[in-house]
């Protein structure tokens, strides 16, 4: 290829071969030519004269193309009626009575029109750019103001939220106090019912003794002055029935929320709870309420594993694991271990297993006795724990320097799977000292509460990351602090948020459903779901709360 030749900073290109042209120009045809294409150009247009000159001596002018009807004739005019270019033979043959204009004149006229139209469009474009910049700036200002206004609405909503919650709590607290008062009165009445006949019996025994003493003494004055007393003991009171007031709660949709305890009644106007977009399926979205609030012997509850619907294993920062009965509020079984339990679960056979800090292992309880089931590899510690639907055991482990985390699937004592890195070789879980709590969803997903990353991480059964949730849905005042995690029969994911005193509920695809932050969940830690779908939540105060969805 020839070295480019520039004229006024422009590379000259041959109009035939489109390579760099040299110093040739055809005046007749107004085309640029390289040395190799001159003959080709002349031969292609043999009927036309060709004035080949050096490029520097070119004289640019309007050149018309050849007539398509009369070979060898150049088009020198324009027929406006037929809107075609024509030669002089065409004028004589078929365009005599038409409006004819010479090409140079038509060319110049249209060049002026093109220039005028271009200038006008450029002015409109420049004006539109100014208006567009102003419009964009205005839109940004409006977006900022609109966002600020909606944020203010959210802040305004928080105050009545607390007032409404307080009103509901006060209603139920008053009725709870009333029940305690009625209970005390009923118990006192029953105690009095038991004491009264005992006192009458004692008096009767005393009178019999006194009468026998008179008979034995045979003293005339005592016999003569004797006054009969049996009529005073004939009306011994019968058993008194204690009336138990009935409790009636109305929660029908569209009606008032009312609670009646005997003659006492309280009402609260019921509103329809907020629901998300219709394209999000939330079968259990609604209002939760506390159905049990029990102070346990533990000072803190970090782990819970439900057994059926009314019992659960609970553990905290001590070396004791308790089997707690919700119905009686009592401890049914107590297991003392050498270390401190980090997490626990119940196998399909109903056996308790737990991770042991001290022994770096998974321990199983059989017939009240403990034995090591799984031992963590050298340099690793076992923390989070979950029994799967197919009988496998998922254990979260981290290295003693807390730089690596992984999830190991065991089938019995055999390692079946390890989940540590994603497809790009990056670590899935963030390093740090928080426990990686685990739960298996009904679709086989493994849900992990990654407190180090302040996220919920969900991987599928093969270990591929499906999504991460960072707590944005609840918009807590403090950073998202996930701890225990659980799933329910509807594949919903529930996770405790200790810093914001609430539960986050997600669907199986990680979409935020709702935040349960109105049940007095002060620093929630332990979490489990029982066979009836109720949430058992352990607090750092040692309280155990059972919350359930209100049936609307």
Quick tags:
single chain, 552 residues, alpha+beta, 3 domains, 4-stranded antiparallel β-sheet, elongated, disordered N terminus
Instruction: Specify the CATH class of the largest domain.
Output: Mainly Beta
Please state the average pLDDT score: 81
CATH architecture of the largest domain: 6 Propeller
Task: State the share of residues found in helices, binned by percent.
Answer: 10-25%
| End-to-end C-alpha gap | 84 Å
Weakly predicted, low-confidence segments: 1-9, 270-284
Number of helices: 4
Which sequence of strands runs across the widest sheet? Answer: 12-35-34-33
Beta-strand portion reads 25-35%
Helix-strand category: alpha+beta
Count of distinct structural domains: 3
How do you describe this structure in short?
The longest helix has 115 residues, at 103-217. With 552 residues, the chain is of the alpha+beta class. The protein has helices at 38-44, 88-94, 103-217, 220-224, and strands at residues 6-7, 10-11, 24-26, 31-33, 52-54, 77-79, 84-86, 100-102, 247-250, 257-261, 264-268, 288-295, 303-307, 311-315, 320-325, 330-336, 341-346, 352-356, 361-366, 369-375, 380-387, 393-399, 405-411, 414-419, 436-440, 446-450, 455-459, 465-469, 482-487, 493-497, 502-506, 512-516, 524-529, 535-539, 543-549.
